[in-house]
Write a structure and sequence with these properties.
Layout (H helix, E strand, L loop, with lengths): L1 H19 L13 E12 L10 E2 L1 E11 L5 E19 L3 E20 L3 E18 L3 E23 L3 E12 L4 E13 L1
Antiparallel strand pairs: 1-3, 1-9, 2-4, 3-4, 4-5, 5-6, 6-7, 7-8, 8-9
Length: 196
């Protein structure tokens, strides 16, 4: 619950910075057509597992990066990738001891973004995802397996505050869905951007 309050405080601070900024009518800022954004934050996995469901830790972390082309219109296009740890599973058996299972998604998606009210935006992304399954056990060692999910999508809504027309800081809520095993999660990402 304390983490939730921290996120609310960050959002209020960023919103107040935007309200205090005074536009200069004489300034003509240079338009930067490209931007790179990167961020990280916690995520929650919507548990749909049939076996070992009670052992799953749904709270994990996500990292994301996207390269965007931003013309003078409301729509921007780009490509996004990241590292989403979907869930971890620790269970114990008398025969093998403690086994740790980790599922990871690495998406490669096309992104369409639109700006709402200058500093608020929404994104929609679609593409493929590399799914990694890592199993480790002290007696048996480590086993890695992977597969592709070919029709995945994501959606995000966020706020960003732009400093000097180049650097931006913000926060976004990001939903991700993978069709292969019907995995989905919701992340709260703290983002930093640079326009060039």
């Amino acid at each position: 619950m304390k983490l939730y309050k921290f996120y609310i405080v960050i959002l209020i601070i960023l919103s107040s910075l935007n309200l205090q900024a005074q536009p200069n009518s004489n300034a003509h800022p240079k338009k930067h057509r490209f931007a790179f954004y990167a961020g990280a934050g916690p995520n929650y996995y919507f548990n749909n597992l049939a076996t070992s469901k009670t052992h799953v830790d749904p709270w994990n972390h996500s990292f994301a990066g996207r390269f965007m082309w931003q013309p003078e219109h409301f729509l921007s296009l780009g490509i996004e990738s990241g590292y989403y740890q979907l869930y971890t599973d620790n269970y114990f058996t008398q025969t093998f001891g403690t086994t740790r299972v980790k599922n990871i998604a690495i998406p490669i998606q096309i992104v369409v973004s639109t700006t709402i009210l200058k500093n608020y935006y929404v994104n929609f992304s679609m593409g493929q995802t590399r799914l990694l399954n890592q199993v480790s056990n002290s007696g048996l060692g480590k086993i890695d397996a992977g597969s592709w999910s070919l029709a995945d999508f994501g959606a995000a809504a966020g706020y960003k505050y732009i400093f000097k027309n180049r650097v931006s800081l913000g926060v976004e809520t990001k939903f991700f869905y993978s069709t292969k095993y019907r995995d989905s999660n919701l992340a709260l990402m703290f983002m930093a951007g640079y326009n060039f």
